[in-house]
Amino acid sequence: MSALAAHSALMRFSRHELRLAWRDWAWMFSGWRNTSLRRALIGMGMFYAIMHLIAYAVLSPYFATGIMLDQTTQAMLSVTVLLSFTMMLSQAMESVTRAFYARDDLDLILSSPAPSRDLFLVRIVMMALTSWVMSALVMSPFLNVAVVLGGQHWLAGYVVLLSVSLSATGAGVLITLALFRTVGAQRTRLTAQILAAIVGAAFLIGMQVVAILSFGSISRFTLFDPAFLANHAPSAGSPWWFPAHAVAGQTNAVILIFAASVLFFAMGAWLGAVQFRRIVVLALGVTEKTTRGRASERAFRSYSPFGALVHKELSLIFRDPWLVSQTLMQVLYLIPPAVMLWVSFGENTEISVIIAPVIVMAVGQLAGGLAWLTISGEDAPDLIATAPISLFTRLWAKVLSVLTLIATILLPIALCLALISLWGAVVTFAGAMIAAASAILVQLWFRSQAERTTFRRRQVASKASTLAEAGASISCAAGTALIAAGSPLALLPVVLLLIVLGISRSIRPRHDAKI
Amino acid sequence: MPSSSPAALDILNLKKCFGKPAVNDLSLTVRDGEFYALLGPNGAGKTTTLRMVAGLLEADAGSVKVCGIDAFSDPIAAKHVLAWVPDEPMVYDKLTPLEYLEFVAGLWSMEPDLARFRADTLLDSFGLASHSNERCGGFSKGMRQKVALAGALIHEPRLIILDEPLTGLDAGSARQVKKVLSGLVAQGVSIVMTTHILEVAERMADRIGIIARGQLVAEGTLEELRERASADGNSLEDIFLKIVGGGSEGGAQTGKADYPDEKVA
C-alpha cells in the first residue's frame, strides 16, 4: 500500500515537472511572448538546418580523407568532452542551488504529506535530461553529419553526452551538498554562484593561457598542433583519451562511461534526496543577513537629486553579491589578454591588435549587465517616478553610474597597455567605452521594469536586446582591432555598429513616458 | 467657512482605458487638511486613479490639480508637494533605513540637517530607531512598509496618497501608522487613502468616496452616506455593500471585473 502511494507521488511529481518544463520550453521558443509557438518552431527548425550545413562544411574535409583516431583527433574529442563537462557542471551547480533556495512551490510541497524526497529525485532527473537535451541540440548537427559521413558508430556521441550530463548533474549535487556542510546555508548560494562561474570559464581560459605561454598565441586551437601533442600529451593509447574512444563508438568504452555516469548520478541524486528537506528548511530560513552598520550620528550628505541617484546606484552595485560573481566571470575572461600582455611585454608593440577585441567584448558585456541592473532592475520604481526630477535626469544618472564603473575597471588595463603601445591603449580604451555606451543605449531602448533578483533571466527576456547587445559588442571589438592595426577595413564594423544600433532603435518597444 | 487655499486634490473628468474604461469621467475634490478615504470593490479603478494623480500613469483625458498645481502640465512642481505610498513597500534591500531616507531627502533636494532630524523623528515614530542601521533586506513586510512610509513623509508633503497602507501590518504597527497619519492631518496635511479595512475609513476619514466601475458613485461624510443609503445606524460595511450592490470585483452586481484597474489589466 505504502509502495503504491510512493509510486503514485513520484508519478504525480513527474507529470507536474514535465508540464512545467514543457510550458517553460514553449514559452522560451516563442521568445517569451505570446507569439505563435508554431512560428517559433519553424524558425528554430531553419536555424537547426543551417547548423547542419555549417557542421557539414567543418567536418567534410576530415571525413573526405578518412578520419583517423590518431593522437590529435583523440585529444580534440577528449577535450571537447571535458569542456562539455565543465559547462554542464557550471549549469548544474546553478540549477541545484536554485532547487534548494528558490521558494516557488516549496512551501506548498513541504507542508503537504507528499514525500519531498521524491520531488528532489524528479527535479534532479529533469535537470540532467534538460542539460542533455540542450547540449544535444547544440552538438547534434555535428553528430548527425558524422553519422552520415562516417557511420552509425558516431551515434555513440549521444550516449556520451547523456553520460556527461548525468556525471555533471551528480557532481553538481555533491559539490552543493559539500558547500552546505562546509560554509553553511547563508553562504552556499553565493559561493556556488562564484564557483559555477569559475568552473564554466576556467577550462577554456586555462587552455588559452597554456597556448599563450607555449606558442605566444591567444588561440587555444594551437594546442592541437601534432608536434606539440607528441611532446607534451599522453600517447594515442593512453587511458586519458578514453572519452574519445567512447565518442567514436567503441562498445566497451561507451558501456563503461555510461555505467559509471549512471552510478555517479544515482549516488549524488540519492544523497541529495535524503537531505533535501533538511537543506531546504535551512535554506528557506536564510534571510538577508542583518548587516548592522555603524550607529551613524553623522549629518546627511548634501546631495542634488542627480547626485543622490548616482550614489544610490553605486552603493547598490557594490553591495550586490550576485554582481560580484558576474563581474568575476567577465574579469576571468580578461586573464588571457593580461597574460598575453605580460608575455609580450617589450617585444610586440602590435599586441593591442590581439587583445583589444577581447577587452572590448568583455567590457561591452559587463556594461550590458550593469546597465540592465541600474536601468531596468530598479527596485523602487514608484519612488523614483514620483520624485520631482525629470525623466532625463533619472536616466542620465543611471547611465553615468555605469560609465563611471566601466571607466574605473578599464583605466588600469589601458594604462598597462599604454606602457607597450600608447596608440593601442587609446584605441582600446575608446573602443571599450563605445562598446559600453552601445550596450547602455540598447538597455535604454529595451528597458522594462524588473526586479534585480531576475538578473539571470535578463538575456532571455528580450532576444532582440540580447542580439543587439552582442552585435554591437562584436562590431566594436572588430572595429577596435582593425583601427589598432591601421586597416581601412575598420569602416566596415563601424557601419555595422551603426546599422545594429539603428535597427535596435527602430524596433524598440514603446515606453510609458513615466518609466 | 470656505477655505481660501486651493483644494489639496482636484480631479476633473479623469479617464483611462485599458481596452475597457478603467476610470470613467471621474471627478472628485479633496480639501486642504482633509483625510479622504477612497473605497471600492476590487478592480473599481481606485489604484488607477491614484497612479494617474501621482504621475505614474498617463491619463487619456481629464485634469488633476495638486494644491493648485496642474499635475499634467507641471509634474515636477506637483511632485514636490506630493507623496505616494504603494501597497507593496518598495525599498532597497541593500540600504539601511537611514541610507534610504538620506537618498529620498536627496531626491527632494532637502536641506541635510533638517532631513537628518526628520529621519530620526520618523524612524522613532514608527518604532524603527533601533533598526536604523540594519539593511532592509532582512526586514518583515510591515517594517518595510514603515520604512517606505517614512520615506514618503520625510520631505513634508502637503498631499499624501496611500494605496492600502495597512496591508500586512500587525496591530501594533497599524496603530503606529494610524497615529502618525492622524497627527499629520492635525497639522494640515491632506491624505487620500484607499483601503479595504472599512473600520479604518469609518474611524479616520473626514469624507469617504466610493468608486465602482471607474466612477464615483457616492461621496460624503459617514453620516451623509448613511442618509443616502437609508441605512440609519448601520456600519460603513453595510452602507458600502448597499451602495455597490453587494458585488465585488469591479462594481455593482456584476460580480466580475468589468472595469479592471491597471493591475487587473
UniProtKB/TrEMBL annotation, chain A:
Keyword Transmembrane helix belongs to the record: yes
Transmembrane portions of the chain: 40-63, 75-93, 120-143, 155-180, 192-215, 253-274, 322-345, 351-375, 395-420, 426-446, 490-507
Keywords: Membrane, Transmembrane, Transmembrane helix
Top-rank taxon: Bacteria
Protein name (record): ABC-2 type transport system permease protein
From TrEMBL, chain B:
Xref: InterPro entries: AAA+_ATPase, ABC_transporter-like_ATP-bd, ABC_transporter-like_CS, ABC_transporter_ATP-binding, P-loop_NTPase
Keywords from the named record: ATP-binding, Nucleotide-binding, Transport
Pfam families: ABC_tran (PF00005)
UniProt-recorded name of the protein: ABC-type transporter ATP-binding protein EcsA
Keyword match Ribosomal protein: no
Domain of life, source organism: Bacteria
Membership in a protein family: Belongs to the ABC transporter superfamily.
Gene Ontology molecular function, alphabetical: ATP binding; ATP hydrolysis activity
Repeat among keywords: no
Domain ABC transporter: 6-238
